[in-house]
Amino acid sequence: MSSFFLFFNRKLTHARTYFVLLLVFSLAVVFVLGVLKCDTSELLDHMYYYFGVNPTEAGTPVSQKIVFLGIALIGLFFFNGLLITAFANGIERYVENIRGGRMRYRLSDHMVMIGYNMLSVSVIEHALTQATDSKLVILTSKDARMIRAQLQVSLPKDMEERVVIYAGESDISKHMKSLRLPHAQEVFVMVEGNEWENQYTQSMSMLQEVARAAGNRSIKGNNLLKVNVLINDSIAYDLVQRLELPERLYSMELPRKGNDKNIEPEYQQNIDLHIFNFHDNWARLLWSYHGKKDDKDASYVYDALDFEPLEATDKYVHLVIAGFNSMGRALLLEALRICHYPNYDELTGSNQTLITVIDPRAMELETQWKAHYAHLSQITDVKIDFVSATIEAAEVRQQLEEWSADCRQLLTVAICVSDPDAAMGMALTLPEGMYYHYNELTLQPHKETAPFGKQNVIENGTRPRILVRQAIKNLHSEVLAANKIPYQNVKLFGSFTEGFDEALLDDDLAICINGVYSNYSLQLEQGQKGIEQIKEVPFKNLLESWRESWLNLKVTPETNRLSSRYQVDSYRSLLAMLKRIKSLPKEAKDLMLKQLANAEHRRWIAERTLAGWRQACSNELRIDRLKIHTCIKPYTALPESETIKDINVVQTAEILVDALKK
Length: 662
Description:
The protein is globular and about 95 Å long. By secondary structure, it is of the alpha/beta class. Helix 2 (40-50) packs parallel to helix 3 (62-78). The chain has 25 helices and 17 strands. Helix content is 47%, strand content 12%. The protein folds into four domains: 2-99, no CATH class; 111-256 and 264-276, Rossmann fold (3-Layer(aba) Sandwich); 295-472, no CATH class; 506-661, no CATH class.
């Protein structure tokens, strides 16, 4: 009997030692997780994940979690010989859960990315650069370890460490709840899956889930959740630009008053929505006001399509697009929106912008294009030609030779084929006239060993610009830099890592444009200048009042906001022209302002045409639901009140840009 008690006492003492160690370690874990501000439920989650206890799915009641944790501790207490192994296994499981994206954290003032695709790295880098103290959470159904490895290779270490990965599905409410959207500052809705199929439906579904989970936010409280939605299919993106979005997609449903189910639901907007497209982004980065004009790598600095002055010359822009895929389509749409210049002659049609699309399937694609945009005849100052061939075809090469020799043409060739090696091959083997002017080729060499005339080439000049699509950023830019002559005008574009820029999400200038139009349209119709109205009020006060109406999608729907953004795109050329005409005599300057106003009106017609609007009949004015507008007609046929609006648009451009810089 005494031997039994001695054995029991020895074992009990041994067990007490392990129990004390277990208790100390558990308290340390509790303290650390408490510092991390985990609530009770999350703290228990961490505890039983550590001990390898995961009997049910997430969402288990706290009482059950306590029971399971108690069972784990009792088991460790009696089977003390396994304690060290249990600790080791527990740590291993804990790390494994973190790597697998199964851990959840109590974050606030963070950013969220729902879904992960090829564009995500670029978005993450720009987002974390702007918000230097914030973390970014990725909710993805993909392998968390694979994503972590990609981020470690693609991002700086300090930036990569601020990314948290959650494994889960975007359409499951409990996973959305773990993102703590009421406490987030910005959301990026991406699309996962092969070829990003059905992304319009997927994106709108995700947007609705975000609106439900975003909580009680409002315009008046100035705390709307900024949500950026990627729609990467060109047709789907065009659909979004044409249609008004249902209120439930960007608002939370308010509690019903009474029990009557027939009462229409009421909504409160809680989202600041911004829809974007990868190919559209790149088109804007090439030529718009937000274009890449400054970059450490010269291969990623792009000239405007009008890289020479066009105010009082007989020159014109000619854009050649080789490969009419999603990228080629986006470049054509952007060119149609911005290529409207003051030297176009409406009577003779001279100096008309020319766009040539070269593709083996051009006839079929032209039919689809014209069916999709049925009112292209309203755009009179741009001509589009479709050529069924490849850019290597002999007849096409002959045409390129002639175009490059034409001193009136400002020629840009954009090679958009998907195969990167084939695209580079095309870009570097174009006819010689694309790299050298014919008058340069006739010069005598300074040395007998030099290629005929090529050492006399003057850098840049007016030779054609050549853009070549490369989906993955590679060493080609360095190769081009090393071969500056003759390839100084060959530029790479279209990489996934460069296809997103925060500047494209900056709506301040678009807000000003919309604010001027909305608040001063009546004065403009009466012949008063809106410029003087703007100068009378402190600009910061104006911007804040305009921002409130801009954020309200009931007041300024997404279709109207897109229109203002595309007007901003045209400011790159407009501001350059305004700068050049400042030194002109007053009479010549006034004449040029009218020509710029005419060009602005033609730009507006093109933008409205691409959005589905058409010219009104004589007995109609403007019917928004039918997209009919009486002002879709030549500038000379407009009443004076409308021409004054266009003149004010031109004159206001510099004032708004300068005011935002202060």
